[in-house]
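hey so i finally got around to running the thing on that chain from the lab meeting. sorry it took forever, my laptop kept dying and i had to restart like 3 times. anyway pasting the input first so we r on the same page abt which one it is
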Amino acid sequence: MSARPMGSATISFGLVSVPVKLYSTADTSSKVSFNWISPSSGTRVRQKYWDPKEDRLVERDELVKGYEFAKDQYVIFNPDELKVLEAQATNSIDVTEFIPFEAVERLWLSKAYFLGPDKGGDRAYRLLSAALRKTGRAALGRYAARGKEYIVLVRPLEEGLLLEQLYYPAEVRSFDEVPIGEADVKDAELDLAVQLIEQASADEFKPEQFEDTVAARVLALIEKKIEGEEITSAPEVEPEGKIIDLMEALKASLDSGSEKSGSRKSAKPAAKKSSARKAASK
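ok and heres what got predicted. didnt touch it at all, straight out
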């Protein structure tokens, strides 16, 4: 089933225009979510708005928007005034410069969207993707939509394009705010840590090796509940003894990794024997 576009835009650089469509990169339909239910009626409850000063419920059509300029002091805006405040939605991605892929740290990334060519834009779309791949660069620019203006990065993805929405500088905290303590790194510990990393290293990211086991367990328990079974908590597992000494922890980790590697190697011939027995039985 083809993805449905969320909107459209035009990438503009120089005198070149590339009409594109935006698609969500995520599929959240498999997420497990719960609703608040009234136990007496079995009905899903609805949110209400309460005015504590007037001690009454406020209907949604009575509400207006306001900005808190001081503690508990608000300036109120009507719908027409709010429209004036909004950025004009040009739906144009105006490229200001082209920068190397690695120039933008991951902490700046807010959201990501797939980009596909819009009507009549196939050739220009393919050309931009190929040019960005060849130069190793991404297009940095501004995108005005939904009443706001965003910093965006358009980068190549496979044969197409990806739009990354970035945070503004005021929205990103400095790492200087994070206390990291004081400690010396010993050469012997560093060597063991490097060995441990090399032992568990891989050359590419394979997301298919990961599965949301918590969601699978929750869904299985929900199915039991639907069938009328009681859900009971599993017995708590006693925590393993912690190795306090850092050197000992590194050595134990390396030994554990070696054992796992050895067991994987020894398991391969057994698997072949099993396959052979299956073939013989046929």
